[in-house]
Write a structure and sequence with these properties.
The chain is of the alpha/beta class. The chain has one domain: 3-Layer(aba) Sandwich (Rossmann fold). It is built from seven helices and nine strands; from the N terminus they run E-H-E-E-E-H-E-E-H-E-H-E-H-H-E-H. The radius of gyration is 16 Å and the shape is globular. The N and C termini lie far apart (38 Å).
């Protein structure tokens, strides 16, 4: 596999990484394309196959694992798999794009390990675990049990932050967005003057 740059955003659920990634994708000078992950979990709300995730049955996901079709994969909860298909990254690289990921910390670090020179790994840190809980409750997409599972997982994920290239503290969204833009623009060699005040 050979192509453009890989930009990873990882964080506990509710840290704001998805908001940051969506913002960066709207900046044409960064030449980014989003890597759609595969998952075996059920769709939520208005999620669309091929846009939010590639929704695969557990058996189908396991077949891809067996055939070494993933760049990285993880069983996040029992029979709840997430992964990055090699074909997805190859497709975006063939379009001449830099690939951006919104991915869990384990997957992010695995990609960084496989492509150390081509990858910028960014960890988005929430203001606090309490704030995370508030944000997850506001979403109203999951049960209290699921939220508590995510909060427990967040403590473990926060401990991995030092293994990333950069940590963005998301206390203030506007500041985090600007910091992320500057980092990515530097990494991909984009002209930053377009976005500067």
């Amino acid at each position: 596999m050979k192509g453009g740059k890989l930009i990873i955003f990882s964080a506990p659920s509710g840290s704001g990484k998805t908001t940051i990634v969506k913002h960066l994708l709207k900046q044409p000078e960064l030449n980014l394309a989003f890597s759609v992950s595969a998952t075996s979990r059920a769709r939520r709300g208005k999620e669309k196959d091929g846009e939010h995730y590639y929704f695969l049955h557990v058996s189908e996901f396991k077949k891809h694992i067996k055939n070494d079709n993933f760049l990285e994969w993880e069983e996040v909860y029992r029979d709840n798999f997430y992964g990055t298909l090699k074909s997805e990254v190859e497709r975006l690289w063939a379009e001449g794009k830099n690939v951006i990921f919104d991915i869990d910390v384990v997957g992010g670090l695995r990609i960084k390990k496989k492509f150390p020179k081509e990858t910028l790994a960014v960890f988005v840190k929430p203001p606090s675990v309490d704030e995370l809980k508030i944000r997850l409750k506001k979403r109203s997409t999951e049960s209290d049990d699921k939220i508590n599972m995510r909060i427990a997982k967040a403590s473990v994920e926060l401990a991995t932050a030092p293994q990333f290239d950069i940590i963005i503290n998301n206390y203030d969204l506007e500041t985090a967005l600007n910091e992320a833009h500057t980092l990515v623009a530097d990494f991909v060699g984009a002209d930053k003057s377009i976005n500067e005040e």
